[in-house]
Automatic annotation (TrEMBL):
PROSITE patterns: TPR (PS50005)
Region (Disordered): 356-397
InterPro entries cross-referenced by the UniProt entry: TPR-like_helical_dom_sf, TPR_rpt
TPR repeats: 304-337
PANTHER family in the record: CELL DIVISION CYCLE 16,23,27, CELL DIVISION CYCLE PROTEIN 27 HOMOLOG
Keyword rRNA processing tagged: no
Organism of derivation: Leptospira ryugenii
Name of the protein: Hemolysin
Amino acid sequence: MNRTIIALAGFLFICAGIITAFYQTTLESNLDRSSSVLEKIQEGEEYLKQSGPTGKEKALTIFSELAGKQNTSEFEFRIKYNQARALEKNGDHYLALDIYKSLRSKANLTEDEKNLLAYSLGNLLLRLDQEVEGKGHLESVLRTSADSKLRSKVLQSLGDFSYRKKEYELARKNYILSLQEDTNNTDSRIGWGRTLRKQGKEWASFDVFDEYIDTENQLSGAKTEIVDEYKNSVFSEAMQLYSKKTYWKSIELFQKSLSINPSPSVEENSYYHIASAYDALGRLPQALEYLNKTLANQVYTLDQQALYKKGTIYFRQGKYTEAASVFQTIVDKYPKNHITEKAIAWKKESLDQLKDEDEMPVNDDLSFEGVKQERKNSVSPLMEKTNQKASGNDLEF
């Protein structure tokens, strides 16, 4: 009897150990799988935050793969919702719309999930020009959600819709309300500025976001087309101010353009025009600094003009040897054109000035330095000719 009891107890202990080991292994396996799924979800969400084409394509791949697998209920909403977002960003609007609608029919959604879906549905419907249904979803979010960032996105969506409909005053009001909910909503800030421009309030538009957006990093995550429009508008405004001879403000905006849109082409044009503005303001050392930056960057479209301007500045500073060297570089480096012809003439003028200095006698009444200063302050025949034309061409002295 005792042996039977002992054997039975041993058997039960063995079974308990096997069952415990099985459940432990299964539990750990499920935890590992959940952890792996969560990591993939987070990776996909990071890609969704990016504005470039690569990010949205990678996000779609990740969430489509996850949606095709059997997942636990805790991740189902998050996976399907992000799949719809990725589809929407990739231009598959109607497929995204179907997923949003199917998610709304699911039971046991939290209030936050319902509001998130209502925003995404409303925003997409407005983009598809389904105004009544779209606004209905968005207005429901404003009634029920206390999430300031989500409310800001809702008001931004309404502003974007009004902007597309050319209802600029209504768009302006919605963008302002959006920023009151979330001051860091870059899309709304840019939208507000765009709207003010459409209303003819150019300077007010720059006051809205010009000081707020200092670098390209602050534009990350905003819509690509809106960001591009803003970047181009800053550079265009700088060029307009330069052409109107509003040099200090143009310098400020060219520097702003360099900070938010540091592409080689923008660098070339901004550096050159900053140098030209400083030249016009009589700030020759600063002009030379930016001309050297123009010559040192990756683009060469304005290098000949920059060298020419550099040579004329050296001439005005009385540095005739340096001026002649720069003008000779232009002649050697570039094919014959109107700039090389001017460079030849300026080189001759520089050498003539050097020759005159060499021949100038030094006596007690007039020192060599005094003569040199007098020559610097005099006007050469080339300068007289240019001044008579009074043209606004940068290539004129």
